[in-house]
Amino acid sequence: MRHPARLGTALTLALATAGCSTAAGAGSGADGKPAAGAVSVTSCGRQLTVAGPPRRTVALDQTSTEILLELGLQDRMAGTANLKTKIPAQYEAAYARIPVIAPKIATGEQLRSATPDFVVAGSADLYTKDRAGTREELDALEVPTFVSAVDCPHQNPPGTTAFDLLFSDYENLGTLFGARERAGKLVADQRAAVAKAGENAAGVPQGAQRPSIVYLYSVFNGMPYVAGKNGLPSEMSRIVGARNAFDDVNEDWPEVTWEEVAKRDPDFIVIGDLSERGRPGDSAAEKRSEMARHPVISKLAAVRDGRILEVPGMELDPSVRSVHALGLLANGMKDLGHVR
């Protein structure tokens, strides 16, 4: 956005012109308390109140878009942005009905053009002055802004898992949009999938050494990017009775060296296939090729013995599709023996 300081005036004018009236402020009475029929949830430390289900929602990223589509809310969406990979077949028809306000990260001007009454994002960094505008700016305009609980772990009770945070997103969005039943079914189905993936771990003897996994997300300029401690793969590893080999690195997807990967000598390597993103080193085939020709990595037992699994790369970041990657991981490790 070229003129972030103008966001407030321009967006106010656009919303007034569109007649949007179901924003956060519309859910409060003159005394500041929620009006009759209004519903409230807490999102990343902020209370959101709406007088009724939002009608013109903009999703600022693909993760948020797919959650809303899974909840059947496509008719309440006025825009989407930042598509990173191909939309899955089950969402294609619904997605085709939603305007794309920006192919990449949306600016304040692009958001304004959609005249939203509600905005959803998977991460707080999409709400900045040079992007969609800050949450404070949008709050002042009575446009509620939702952020995934996954991006706000410190706002949640200790011990809450990444999947628990995802499930809370489904429930909160279901509350705001009047889709509690559908959200409840989605939570129940995905909790069952997580429990199913953990069945193998239940049979691991107490105190037994857990197999280690390196999650190879991408290879850029010949350097590997792997899952660190803060990403979803650490939680996925725990569920299946394994451990993330880079659990000591306090990042989501740190760049490391191939020599460091070799030093960890993982029992399994999980490749995130990002071929649809199209950058060099994104495809599973490129990652396999890089490992096969590397003089040290090619000699690792996991590579020699074919203990390599492939999952969709996007599903290694928290999303409504992550339980699918978890299932692939659990089944793949079981098929490969789940032992060192």
Automatic annotation (TrEMBL):
The keyword rRNA-binding does not apply. Residues 56-340 form the Fe/B12 periplasmic-binding domain. It comes from Streptomyces flavotricini. InterPro entries: ABC_Transporter_SBP, ABC_transptr_periplasmic_BD. The keyword Signal applies. Residues 1-26 form the signal peptide. Gene3D superfamilies: Nitrogenase molybdenum iron protein domain. Keywords: Signal. This is ABC transporter substrate-binding protein. Belongs to the bacterial solute-binding protein 8 family. PANTHER family: IRON(III) DICITRATE-BINDING PROTEIN, VITAMIN B12-BINDING PROTEIN.
